[in-house]
């Protein structure tokens, strides 16, 4: 299991039970105690946890963020890492040679380029610094990255504001891949960031086809800020843990629901 997968599970365990123990984590992950301690040190360095004698608890800062649902990119990039990779692998199968694509600043869309065929030529237009940095992890000369302008938001590694909207106005891509914070039982999409909301709305309006990438934990929930009605979306892609009952309220909405195939976990330290 990769470090990022272990850290994702550690966060989920802390959010559900409040504390974790190094010895128990080592047994669970079939890893050495030092490997677990290294993961905890890295999580603490990102302000997510506070290490204790023999274990860890969530940091006060993270608890405050959790209550407001305003997660920084350092946290969102780790949470539900496995599910997000499932979704991105499925989403990448809808990308075709020559596509011009809007990509928003979300941790769910971040891994899209990992699953593109090597020879495909695609243009991505994004306000996400994190997405562009992820693209650089696996350089592909056939991928053109266009960065929207705007005000730099260091907490989320993105740009926003009027400059971003004016940059986005120059393009009419044939596809847009975005995520959201919540999808209600009434088919409304919601988000948490007031900074990037207008950019997401413009991406939805100007793209010919809109794909929403959302893991199973986002369904049947209400978010603080309305983003769009599900009727404005063409495809909704979610992970293999989704339950049919969660999708039932969307059956009356004219959109295609796609469930990703399960990806086996990697067992590597």
Tell me what the structure shows.
The chain is of the alpha/beta class. The chain has ten helices and 15 strands. It has helices spanning 3-17, 22-29, 33-45, 60-68, 73-76, 81-92, 129-137, 162-168, 197-206, 244-247, and strands at residues 19-21, 49-52, 55-58, 100-103, 122-126, 143-147, 151-153, 158-160, 175-178, 182-183, 188-191, 209-213, 225-229, 235-238, 256-259. The strands form four sheets. The chain has a seven-stranded parallel sheet with strand order 6-5-4-9-12-14-15, with helices on both faces. A hairpin with a 4-residue loop joins strand 10 (182-183) and strand 11. The longest helix is centred in the first third of the chain and has 15 residues, at 3-17. The mean pLDDT is 88.
How do you describe this structure in short?
The protein has helices at 3-17, 22-29, 33-45, 60-68, 73-76, 81-92, 129-137, 162-168, 197-206, 244-247, and strands spanning 19-21, 49-52, 55-58, 100-103, 122-126, 143-147, 151-153, 158-160, 175-178, 182-183, 188-191, 209-213, 225-229, 235-238, 256-259. It has 269 residues and is of the alpha/beta class. A seven-stranded parallel β-sheet has the order 6-5-4-9-12-14-15, sandwiched between helices. Strands 1-3-2 form a three-stranded antiparallel β-sheet.
Which helices and strands, and how do they pair?
Elements lengths: L2 H15 L1 E3 H8 L3 H13 L3 E4 L2 E4 L1 H9 L4 H4 L4 H12 L7 E4 L18 E5 L2 H9 L5 E5 L3 E3 L4 E3 L1 H7 L6 E4 L3 E2 L4 E4 L5 H10 L2 E5 L11 E5 L5 E4 L5 H4 L8 E4 L10
Helix pairs in contact: 1-3, 2-3
């Amino acid at each position: 299991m990769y470090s990022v997968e272990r850290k994702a599970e550690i966060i989920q365990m802390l959010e559900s039970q409040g504390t974790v123990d190094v010895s128990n984590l080592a047994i669970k992950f079939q890893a050495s105690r030092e490997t677990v301690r290294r993961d905890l040190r890295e999580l603490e360095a990102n302000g997510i946890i506070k290490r204790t004698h023999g274990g860890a608890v969530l940091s006060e800062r993270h608890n405050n963020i959790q209550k407001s649902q305003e997660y920084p990119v350092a946290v969102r990039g780790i949470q539900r890492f496995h599910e997000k990779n499932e979704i991105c692998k499925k989403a990448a199968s809808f990308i075709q040679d020559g596509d011009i694509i809007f990509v928003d600043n979300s941790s769910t869309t971040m891994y899209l380029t990992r699953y593109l065929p090597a020879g495909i030529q695609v243009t991505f237009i994004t306000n996400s610094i994190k997405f562009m940095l992820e693209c650089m992890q696996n350089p592909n000369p056939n991928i053109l990255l266009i960065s929207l302008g705007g005000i730099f938001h260091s907490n989320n590694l993105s740009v926003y504001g009027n400059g971003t909207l004016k940059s986005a106005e120059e393009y009419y891509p044939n596809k847009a891949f975005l995520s959201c914070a919540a999808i209600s039982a009434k088919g409304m999409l919601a988000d948490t960031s007031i900074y990037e909301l207008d950019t997401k709305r413009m991406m939805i309006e100007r793209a010919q086809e809109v794909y929403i990438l959302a893991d199973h934990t986002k369904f049947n929930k209400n978010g603080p800020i309305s983003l769009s009605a599900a009727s404005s979306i063409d495809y909704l892609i979610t992970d293999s843990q989704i339950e049919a009952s969660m999708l039932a309220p969307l059956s009356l909405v004219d959109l295609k629901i796609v469930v990703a195939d399960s990806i086996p976990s990697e067992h590597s330290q």
